[in-house]
Amino acid sequence: MTGHLRPRPGKAIHQFSFVDALVAGLYEGAFPASEVRAAGDLGVGCGDALDGELVLLDGELFVCRGDGEVRAVGDDELLPFAEVARFEPTFTRELRGPLGEAAFEELVDGLVPSANLFYALRVDGEFDRMTVREAVRQQQPYLGLAEAVKQQHESTVERTRGTMIGFKGPDVFQGLSVADFHLHYLDSGRAFGGHVMDFELVEGVLQLEAYATFTLRLPQVESFLEAELDDIDADAAIRQAEDS
Ligand SMILES: [Zn+2]
Fold first, then answer.
1. Model confidence over 185-223: pLDDT tens digits?
2. Near ion ligand 1, which residues have CB within 5 Å?
3. Distance 24 CA to ligand 1 centre (A)
4. Which of 226, 196, 4 is nearest to 104 (CA)?
5. Pairing between β-strand 13-16 and β-strand 214-217 as defined by DSSP bridges
6. How far apart are CA 214 and CA 223, in angstroms?
7. How far is it, in rounded angstroms, from Cα 205 to Cα 130?
8. Taking the model in full, what pTM does it have?
9. Residue 45 Cα, ligand 1 centroid: separation in angstroms?
C-alpha cells in the first residue's frame, strides 16, 4: 500500500449532464465524444438514446451495448451523459481475493479519508465472476430511466481479466452525480463489458485519486432546454437503476 489520497489543486472530475436528466428521460446525445475525451482519460457514461454503457479507458472510448457488442466510439458521436477525469492515481494497493463487490466497497471506504470527496478508481485484475448490465437503445418518446432500466440486458461471465473503472461520489451529489460507487467494466479483449452489478475478484491492483473539484456542463439540446425537471423522484429511480 503506497501513496496518499489528498486532492490536488487543479484536478477535477468533469461531468457532462447530470443523472436526474437521465431519470427524466433526456437521452438525446448532446456532447461530441471528442469533447468528452478531451476532458479526461478515464470515465463512464451512456450512449445516445441510452444505447449502451461507456467505458473511457486510457483515453480510448468504448460503448458496451445491450446486444453484447463492444465497439469504439467515434469522435463525432453525440453522448447524453459522461463523467470523466484525467486519472493520475496517487494511491496504489494490491488486492487479494476472493473479494466480492460489498467487501470491495467496504475496503475502499476504509481507505479514503472522507466520504465527502470524489474519487476516481481503477482496478486491473482477474475476476472469477463479473456481472454487468447494459441499457438498451430507447425509442422516442423516451420513457424515464425507471422504465428504461426494465429493458436492460444483464450478463455474467466467469474467469475474466480486465479493468473496472469509475467513481465514488458524495451522497449529497445523488441526482447530480451518482452517490457512492459507480463502476463500469471492460475485459482485456475489449469484447465484454458494461455497468458493474456484482463481481468476485481473484487478484488485482487498485488505483485511486481524490478530487475536491467537480465541474458540470449542461446540455444545450432542445429536449433539455424545454424539459420540466422539477418533479422527479430521482433518488428512488437512481437506486433502482444502479442496483437492480
Ligand atoms: Zn453506469
1. 999 999 999 999 999 999 999 999 999 999 999 999 999
2. 195
3. 16
4. 196
5. parallel
6. 24
7. 16
8. 0.94
9. 6
